[in-house]
Amino acid sequence: MGDSAGLQFVSSYAFEAMQKVDVVRLAALSDPELRLLLPCLVRMALCAPADQSESWAQDKKLILRLLSGVEAVNSIVALLSVDFHALEQDARKEQQLRHKAGGSNGESILVSQLQHGLTLEFEHSDPLRRLRLTLSELLAIMNKVADSNGEFFLKSSELFESPVYLEEVADVLCILQAELPSLLPIVDVAEALLHVRNGDWFLCLLVANVPDSFNEVCRGLIKNGERQDEESVGGRRRTEALRQLCQMNPSQALNIRAMVVEECHLPGLGVALTLDYKPDTPDEAVSPLVSYVSGLLLGTNSKVRTWFSMFIRNGQQRKRESSSVLWQMRRQLLLELVAILPRSRSTRLPNDGGMEDEAASGYSGLREEHVVKASALLRLYCALVGIAGLRPTDEEAEQLLQLMTSRPPATPAGVRFVSLSFCKLLAFPTLVSTPEQEQLMVIWLSWMIKEEEYFESAAGVSASFGEMLLLVAMYFHSNQLSSIIELVCSTLGMKIAIKASSLSKMKTIFTQEIFTEQVVTSHAVRVAVTNNLSANITGFLPIHCIYQLLRSRSFTKHKVSIKDWIYHQLCETTTPIHTQLIPLIDAYINSILTPASKANPEATNQPITEQEILSVFQSSAGQGEGSRGGRQRFSITAQLLILYYILSYEENLLASTKQLALMQKKPKSYSAALMDQIPIKFLVTQAQGLQQELGGLHSALLRLLATNYPHLCLVEDWVCEEEVTGTLPLLRRMMLPSNTCRYSQSQLHQAFQKLPSSSPRLIRILEHLTLLSPGDLIPYAEALTASMALLLEPAVPRRILQTLNKLWMGLNTVMPRRLWVMTVNALQPSAKLLRQQRYTQNDLMVDPLIVLRCDHRVFRCPPVMDIVLHMLNGYLLGSKAHLQGHLKETADFDRQSQTISNLGVPGQPDTPEVTREELKNALLAAQDSAAVQILLEVCLPTSEEQQLGVSSKSLLRTNRGPTQGKQKLESQQLISRGVLGDAEPEGGLLSDLREVQCLICCLLHQMFIADPNIAKLVHFQGYPQALLPLTVAGIPSIHICLDFIPELLAQPQLEKQIFAIQLLSYLCTQYALPKSLSVARLAISVMGTLLTGEQMIRVEGCLFCVSACFFRTIFGCHHLVESCSCNPVLFLQRRAFILKGFHRSPVDSQCVCVFFFFSADAGQAFLLLHAHPAVSGGFLPGLPPPLRRRGSSAGASGPGLRVGCGHQSQGR
Length: 1212
Fold this sequence. Notes:
Number of strands: 0
Organism: Oryzias sinensis (Chinese medaka)
Main location: nucleus
Radius of gyration: 51 Å
Distance between the termini: 123 Å
Strand content: under 5%
Protein name: Integrator complex subunit 2
Region (Disordered): 951-970, 1189-1212
Largest sheet: none
Number of helices: 68
Oligomer: single chain
Family: Belongs to the Integrator subunit 2 family.
Shape: elongated
């Protein structure tokens, strides 16, 4: 508002005095300043105060004394003497009249016809008429503003434009608003004053006389303001008015600026207030303007960013104006930029020749106190150009390039400044437009390469700009321009649009003048590794450069060895793990196994040596999964990364064997001896507790273990780990006193050697060891396993065996592989121990059945047998993976010559490959079935146990099978053989044999579930019939045998048919299912077709068992008997078998059904039925109705049936 430039505004000093009602400061004001505040002071002196204190009474006297010498007070007092109530009524009537007339300037109630102009009328009028004239004019403006629909207009008014009467009009305006606040809301009055000349001056006086309304007025003006204030006259006037208000009350300037950002209105006002802001304690680092604009463009609020960017774009479309806020901002930023340039470069101020030129006496770098400000300015200019679309002038571009190519001191801030400057050059290459500027940039880049190592060492930072240079050079060589754009945006901390085509000039400079590919690779390998690399170290590190070079195969192309660098970097790691480590290892493994080109298959990197790998695990807890002690040299992170490297290398090597065979290249695999010395399970257990810090490394290790070492991922082991590492064991260890007695390995060994006399002491030692963690048990592993054979003696207490089993399972969670080998060697028979035969891990992988070639006393020691079965299950799984890996490793190289010779011969069958796969599957099947058969044989009682009366049927005491139908004499004969006796030993049902049987059945159940083909193979091979009650009752998954019993019945061998029928009889009793019924029908049909009289004797009990289980199979048995009617001898024989089975079985309705079907007549049936002991005891249940009708039709006597069944005939 240039029309009020000559007027005196209220000073900030005067406004603060009014706000605080500081009478002393008010008295110090000059007469012109005091004149502007008279309306408020007069009302304050004349109106009755709400504050009745003595201090205010004294202040009021001072105010009256202050006003007594001012002549204009009398006119203000006269204004206050008017009847404002009548004035308000007239004003409201005039508002209604204007509303009815549609806002036209018609008759006025407040003012009659004017004889002269408004100014003359105001001069000659009394106070009341002055109030009416001003009120009428103000209401007219307010009504027009309300009807304008936001369109700005400038109202010409003599009253508000005459310089002679401005003070009197201001007095009237202030009195009207103070006395008629409901008619004249101060926000509406402020809005109306923007539409008249000198409106900002009137507005400041109005607010100064009502200081409490400052925030209310400002918020209202901002809310009603334009989104882009410099686009219209109204916006600029509003901005200027608010700017004057903030100059009057500078303490609220930042709050008003916050309102501007909150409403996203008047962006020029926010910049203007920032330019006007003068902090009490100036910040030497970053200016308020840089902070404010950077916050708008780089903040998280996209709405604010878009709003301010539009302000920048729109401001550039207008011609350069000195009054434009945008150009004021740009000039201020340029002044700040020039002020921090080295003196040899900033020889003049922009557009100002007042500064004397200085001779460049040598080069001077950027001062340390200016580095942070320079970095902030660079980021701000990047945001202005990249986000807001600012087009820098030639002057701005020149000064920016001078700043970017400055040489800062070697500090962390200096490293940051160089990185930002480099990225800005990449983001805006148009800043380099002349050959001189291009040469300046090349010199500066060369300086970066030369000083990078010094900067990193002097600044004490791990992430320097040297890695970024290498990374960009690699991206340029591999033409990954999108990666360069991502790198630039990430470093600058903003998302800006960079065209890939704009990087062509920089690409030429980098690839041809500064960084050739060979220079990049040779320089990268000399870069020092990052010490204690973790995710906490941000920025661009050497690992990023090496990773990109590995991906582009630059090391192999130029024959540069990178193995040592990668090995040392993996060893220099800590938690939390850096996200680039796992991709680095994967890229390194790929560069080892896959040549850079088929023409040069030897162009690969070298793998890490076994000696280097072993050195990482030398001081690891559980080295070789067995040793402890010594200071740990490498961190757990380094050990886990090396473990991941080995496992991933071996997996990728097996997966790439076909391609490597075609290229006649066979990389070296790591030896089994190396893998045996690495504590794999211990490391994975440690990683499980560090999952948050290890990122995806733990899950990657589990995947590799499940694929290559399935025996280390048993479900039982995970469950056992929960029991060992759970809450209860942890609490027990916490309760263990620190000064408790600790036992050595020698004491434990001595206690074992003195058994059984040392049993109490051994129990104390073992119980103490159960309180230790699995890691602390590792030193005792050898003593525990070496003495296991001593525990097989008969006098050893069961508590010792159970405690040993618990300790072994705990050790199994941290060192399973070495523990298994030690245990297998310790449990060998005494003959093998004398020969000093020691098995290795590889021996047990090749032949898992070695586990079962142990001392025979193990088979009757359940706690030790549990350990043996656990090892057997693990080695069976490990053997599968071992054979699969061996097949992949050797098959492709064995068939290499054939594959090469068969090239070009279509249709050549791949017979050797198929044969090898089949042989492997056959070997695994034979291995599993042999283990099952050996375990089933263990379930049979020995000769000594048979003499003691131990039965293998003890597990199934209530299961009705074919043996339940035997005669008493036959049962006694079987008992004498120790196979099927019904009596248990005097000790009760629980015995060592039965416990071992339970353990074996559990393992067989798991094996059958994992691979049903094992169950099929074992039952096709067959096993002793005496074990059928045990297997059917003890192995829940044996019901799958119903699927292949028809196939077993179809076998030509008679023994297999009989075994199938015997198995079916127990399955039908255990699982009376519809599927069992259909198989039972088939079995009865086979019996009637193929079996002779002598063979029927072996399965007669099975026939009755099946018939008793399923009523419908009775008809099949009936036909089985009737089919022999032409042969009287065979007919009577089969009929006798069925009837004899009735007497040997418990009597129920099904038995009676069978009996009646095969009785010759009803009389005989009654006599036989009455002779059954169950009938004489009264336990025969009632017959079903269909059977009773059949009995009646057969001629059975009524009384006989009623007596036998316990029912009356009821006249049937």
